[in-house]
Amino acid sequence: FYTLQAANQLRLFDFLPNDVHHLSKCIDLPEASTFKLLRGLQEMGYIEIDSTHRWVCTNKGSFLQSNHPY
Fold it and tell me: Of 13, 29, 61, which Cα lies nearest the Cα of 21?
């Protein structure tokens, strides 16, 4: 729960798709911490990594983007 709450407070989902380097700058966290947060969200099924090594929202994660219609 805390992982999801932290990601939501940092608005991480609004910066996807992106790579870990750019995401860490967007949310103002060190890359290592950003990567750990991303891996936790991946384990919970909210994001995944694509073939170009960018993190993207899953269908489940897209509901947490601020521009989602619901």
Answer: 29
